[in-house]
Amino acid sequence: TGMLNRFSLEQHINALLSNTGEGNVHAMYIIDLDHFRDINDQFGHGAGDRILMETASKIALAFSRQDLIARTGGNEFTVFLNLTRNASRPAMEIIDLKGKILCELLKNTYSDNLHEINLTASVGIAVYPRDARSGEGLRKKAEIALNNCKRQGRNQYQLYQSSMTEEV
Fold it and tell me: Are 111 and 43 in contact (CB under 8 A)?
């Protein structure tokens, strides 16, 4: 996909957070392609690879060059939104809007003569410094929000809330 891997992403996030200014807000998005295994099973791994590349391109469209985008698992991507105090909109409004955009961009139907699969995405979001003050803490909270999305039917995004349980 030409994106950062998990290790590189963690290094970049740690460097950014160690130099972040007071009042800056960041967000971590963990994006999981819903039922991706069905793509590989019914269309083959070559098709799955093409869809991962397409997904990477679509995610990049939703963010700027100052944001960090990585493929962190088989069908999982992570984005670190690097907001500054100078943003034109309130931080939480931008964070929420990006979640909506991701879900819409990643919605697609794949078909051949035999199969049709609707591919969607579930997105868990955690916000710095509200939810955690480290990259690892943000990842844990975003994963909780992601798992909550999946339990509630997938094809949605959720911001981490302290009332969410850590059940998988």
Answer: no
Whether omega for the bond prior to residue 90 falls within 30 degrees of 0, making it cis, is no
Angle at 74 between CA 73 and CA 76, to 5 degrees: 55
Is the predicted pLDDT of residue 22 greater than 90, yes or no?
no
pTM above 0.90, yes or no: yes
pLDDT in tens, 49-79: 989 999 999 999 999 989 999 999 989 999 9
Rounded CA separation 39/130 (Å)? 37
